[in-house]
């Protein structure tokens, strides 16, 4: 489960950064909306998967609600999932 959660966290972080760093500027500055649509769909799916896997992972590890909230908030911040991976997940590997 740890490998799955770490992979999901990294992919979700990459999709989040590519959405805001690449496709949003293309959409608003270059009038090219198509990449934003597809990366947005991928990010949405990865975000939902991240939250579901985080719930299962915290349940398995018997982590308290505070740790889950930290992991959830990390998914809302740019570079947050990378921080959560380094601080909370990498030490378990």
Automatic annotation (TrEMBL):
Pfam families: DUF3817. InterPro entries: DUF3817_TM. It is a multi-pass membrane protein. The chain crosses the membrane at residues 7-26, 38-59, 68-84. Keywords: Cell membrane, Membrane, Transmembrane, Transmembrane helix. It is found in: Cell membrane. This is DUF3817 domain-containing protein. GO terms for cellular component: plasma membrane. Residues 2-88 form the DUF3817 domain. It comes from Flagellimonas pelagia. It comes from the Bacteria.
């Amino acid at each position: 489960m740890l490998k799955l959660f770490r992979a999901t966290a990294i992919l979700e972080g990459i999709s989040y950064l590519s959405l805001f760093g690449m496709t949003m500027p293309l959409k608003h500055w270059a009038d090219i909306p198509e990449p934003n649509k597809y990366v947005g769909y991928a990010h949405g799916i990865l975000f939902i998967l991240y939250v579901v896997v985080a719930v299962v992972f915290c349940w398995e590890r018997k982590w308290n609600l505070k740790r889950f909230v930290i992991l959830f908030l990390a998914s809302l911040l740019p570079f947050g999932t990378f921080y959560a991976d380094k601080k909370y997940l990498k030490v378990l590997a």
